Amino acid sequence: MDTVHIIDLQFKKIPNSIAAFLVETSEGPILIESGPESTFEALQSGVEKIGYQIEDIQHVFLSHIHFDHAGAAWKFANHGAKIYLHPKGAPHLANPDKLWNSAKMIYGDQMEELWGEMKAIPPSQLISMTDGQTISIGSTSLKAWFTPGHAVHHIAWQHGDTVFTGDVAGVKIDGGPVTPPCPPPDIHIEDWKKSIERIKALQPTALYLTHYGKVIEIDTHFEELELILDDWAVWIKGYYEKKVEQQEVVPLFITYTQNQLKKSGLSKETLDKYEKANPSWMSVAGLYRYWKIKEKLAKTEQ
Ligand SMILES: [Zn+2]
Which residues form the Metallo-beta-lactamase domain (predicted)? Predict the structure, then answer.
């Protein structure tokens, strides 16, 4: 089995928050996830520490196109690398203006500091996958499994008996509990659960979470994830139905989720990492949108 290296991107100078994965193949190193452009220096020094140069990486596999997973992919495309991703993500990386501008509405002038720069990738270097398709690099194979729920353009990459799960297997930091990142606009609880079933059916022996690292207790991990996904969705639904403004809900949700995390005896430092990797305000917005769409659908069906 190929060696997998976890590179800590030290997002906002915090360890164990965002990872990229370097896999050594018989044809050189490949990368799963690029992280945002703002952490490119950390990625570069991580790659060099393993003994390679950035230019050696000719294949980059993305779980999805959120900035913290894909923001630096164009840097690799610049030296000719191929970027493998979901067909629904490809147009956004070919022309990132729309993605950037809609994120800017949320992050405002913090955009550059958080995510760095984003430049277009030539469409000829963006390789859109089909569900179940395998890419072979030397003796290494990666298989794309479409896994919506967190994002419609999400892929979990199977590598032998392990899976790089992007965000669909949630966030788990420093051995704490698993939590689901629920940003707008694609959150879909039912699809997410189906995606979990898909990954479980592969019977992996390990998962690699972008936030953060290797998980081997797979059954309990997914059990916990499904429970907390329902728990958060139902909690938010209560406020959504009472038409409480989102900005009023955010501090309540932070208290609610921090108390859940504290029950596991997490340190203040780890609580901070969870909030950085999976901000509460985003999940409030994402789950409000989920319930709103569900309500609309129910109305049109009547
Ligand atoms: Zn994401």
Answer: 17-211
